[in-house]
Amino acid sequence: MKLYYKPGACSLASHIILNELDISFELDKTDTEAKKTETGEDFRKISPNGYVPALITDDGDIITENPAVLQYLADQTPEAGLAPKNGTLERTRLQEVLNFISSELHNSFSPLFSGNEFNDEEKQQIVAGIERRIDHIERSLPDGRSHLLSNSFTVADAYAFVVLNWTNFVGMNLNAWPKTQAYVARISTRPATVKAMTTEGLIEQEQGA
C-alpha cells in the first residue's frame, strides 16, 4: 500500500493506523498546493479533489476521504480491533463519530488553514465554532471512558487526535476541556502516533531511539 500524505494534515490519522497495524506500506509526501508528490507524480491524477489522504491499495485501487481510508485499513486486519464489525450497531456508531469529526470538527478548523486574512470579529466567530465542536468531544468522554467509543482505541481516536492537535498550530489550547486535553495527551504517547509524527517531522526523535 502507498499513502499520500501532507505532514500534520488529516492524513496523519491514516499514517498512525498503518503503524498500529504494523503492515508494510510506502509514503509519498504531497504538496497539495502544487499538486505534486515528492516522487514527482501529478497528484490530481491520483486524487482529483487534490487533498490528502489518498491510499493506493495492494490491488492498485485508489481510496480517498479520511473516514473511508481509515475504515478500509481497519478492515484489512480486523483482529486488531480498530473498527467494530460491519453490519453492527457499534460500526454505525463509529461511522457516526467519523462523520462528526470530518464534517464538523475538521471543517471548523479549515478557515484558519485557508491562507485568508480575518479581522478580530471573524476570527472570534471561527474560534467559537471550533469551541462548540470541542464541547461535543468533551461530552463524548464521560467519566471513566478513555476513548471516544469505549475504552478501546479505534480509527476514530486517531482522526480526532490529529484534528484536536491542530489547536497547537492556531494559537488555541485545550485547558477549558480537561477530559479532551487528557485524551489528546494519551493518544499522543501511543508508539504508533509517536512514530508517525516523528516520520512526518512534527516531533523530534528522542536521542538513542
Give a description of the structure:
Helix content is 47%, strand content 9%. By secondary structure, the protein is α+β, with helices and mostly antiparallel strands. A five-stranded mixed β-sheet has the order 3-2-1-4-5. A hairpin with a 5-residue loop joins β4 and β5. The longest helix has 21 residues, at 89-109. The chain is globular, with a radius of gyration of 17 Å. The model has no long low-confidence stretch (mean pLDDT 95).
Strand content: 5-15%
Provide the succession of SSEs.
EHEEHEEHHHHHH
Coarse shape:
globular
Mean pLDDT: 95
The poorly predicted ranges are: none
Q: Tell me the Rg in angstroms.
A: 17 Å
User: Can you list the strand order of the major beta sheet?
Assistant: 3-2-1-4-5
Q: How is the topology of this model organized?
A:
Elements: E1 2-5, H1 11-21, E2 26-31, E3 36-37, H2 43-46, E4 54-56, E5 62-64, H3 66-76, H4 89-109, H5 120-139, H6 155-165, H7 178-188, H8 191-199
Parallel strand pairs: 1-2
Antiparallel strand pairs: 1-4, 2-3, 4-5
